[in-house]
Amino acid sequence: MINLASRDILHSWGKFVFTGAGLGLLIGVTLTMAGVYRGMVDDAQAMINNAGADLWVVQQDTLGPYAEPSSIHDDVARDLLGQQGVLAVGNVTYLTMQIQQGGKDMRIMLVGVEQGKPGEPAYLVAGRPITRTHYEALADIKTGLTLGERIQIRRHSYTVVGLTRRMVSSSGDAMVFVPLKDAQEVQFLKDNDALLNERARTAANPAFNRVPGVLDAVLAGQTSSHMVNAVLVRIKTGFDDQELARQIRRWKHLQAYTQEQMEEILVAKLIATSAKQIFMFLVILSIVSAAIVAFIIYTMTLNKIREIAVLKLVGAGNQTISGMILQQALGLGLIGFLVGKTAATLWAPLFPKYVLLIPGDAVRGFLLVMLMCSLASLFAIRAALRIDPATAIGG
Q1: Which of 21, 106, 137, 384 is 20 to 30 A (C-alpha) from 378?
Q2: pTM for the complete prediction?
């Protein structure tokens, strides 16, 4: 018995392979979209793990410091250090901003940390930690910065003394670490022009002029800052992080999140909208891929009406003909998956965001492609089974 699938593939292998390659590019995009979501989750988990904290203490009634703005006084750290079960604390600031380097715009997350305290990178791939209280920086290698390079952040220039890896925000922006005092100045203090405008506006207000010393007090408050976005807490062995978080919320009138709770905030709330968008793209791409397979297999089947009629005339059953068409559809899906997996692996490192391709997604993707091709072949099988064997004689 002639195998229609093998015969058709051999005689029109070019069209079949190119069709499979085109389908493979769609499958590659689908795998990449799944990898983008995995990468976003992995970035969020890496940011939490690299912080080196068990608790995040932030402004009351906020989801800060990553999902919402949070501002608390930096002297809160001293109060928390006296709490039973607290091993170490560290003030930190986070600010997503745009800087220029080498004539190009670069989006970074500027992190202010205290030397030797939670929040500082746990390891470096090159260079040394920050040792000075001003104008030194650690940069993630994703920024493209090198050791000894100088970067301009607002009014000051910083020297890169160390390089980190996988230190990015949940949005994929590379982190640059600077001393806490410098970061506080960047985030909370106003520049000179703003101070001059505020001084003129305040001086022109009669309410301030009538009270001696009020103007000086207001201006003094605008030229110094002791605010941070969060205090990272590391607890002693044997103490329950949930219980310690409850005590801080009750007695300190602050919000405290455990590592598990912070991960839930980042994954379930911060990137939830992006996850829904990616899911919609995956559904659309799957539907488009299935439609393409169905159309191609259906067209190939209609182009072989006479051959199928001959097979029926010589006694081939419906099961045999259906199996041949199904083999063709599965072969197309196999070529498409191999091309798609290869393409996704090759172009994933070129994406600006981290793309995490895991074997489990590849296995599920392969099974989904085979199922999709099987369902898509039903239209062609239905058309083939309706062909009259007399067509072979009458044509």
Answers
A1: 21
A2: 0.77
